[in-house]
Predict the 3D structure of the following.
Amino acid sequence: MKTAAVVLAGGSGKRMHADVPKQYMTLCGHPLLYYSLRAFEDSFIDEIVLVTAAGEEEHCREMIVERYGFDKVRAIVPGGKERYHSVMHGVKAVSTDTDYIFIHDGARPFITQEILKRVLGDVQEKKACVVGMPVKDTIKIADEDGFVADTPKRALVWQVQTPQVFAAELIRRAYGMLEKEEAELLARGVEITDDAMIVELLTKQPVYLTQGSYENIKITTPEDMGYAEWQMAERLEK
């Protein structure tokens, strides 16, 4: 069995109000991206494909991959206009003999070996899995005028994280279909928000929810970075 990880690191950092893309911002002495790559480098994953902003490939290779000795990084490829375009580029760069592909946000530095092992076990049986956690708060569905339209049963609502993991044949087929049907989907007003949605929508394959961790947050705002500094410092002290 062969596994690969596609790590997305093409963010602009606009919501961080920073002068550098958030993946290069320093978190406890290392670039934010370092932690996701380290987790996969130290895991059972056989190869890593790193997706960066177009034009950042060599910078990322020199300042991240070579500097920290990430030997499993097989390719560094430029991303696209939308997140799903970047994933598509990454999936295409994965070795053809790969059995399972892990897709992960480089801005989620708290991914653990336990989560990776858990989702690997699940995907071998289910073919499509997303890491996530049940929501803690009551969720309201709003109508177009800002009024509550529905209140879903809290026990059935999850907040989705990454990695999202798929049988390689399945995710390749889903993205191949997306290339052909993207214009039609956008014309219908379909907003493509994650990889699982593409699999659900185009292949009808059920996607299983694997338990992750409430700590497995995505760094998006300055407030997130402050929390991450505290949380990472605690983790490194253990």
Summary: The chain has a mean pLDDT of 93.
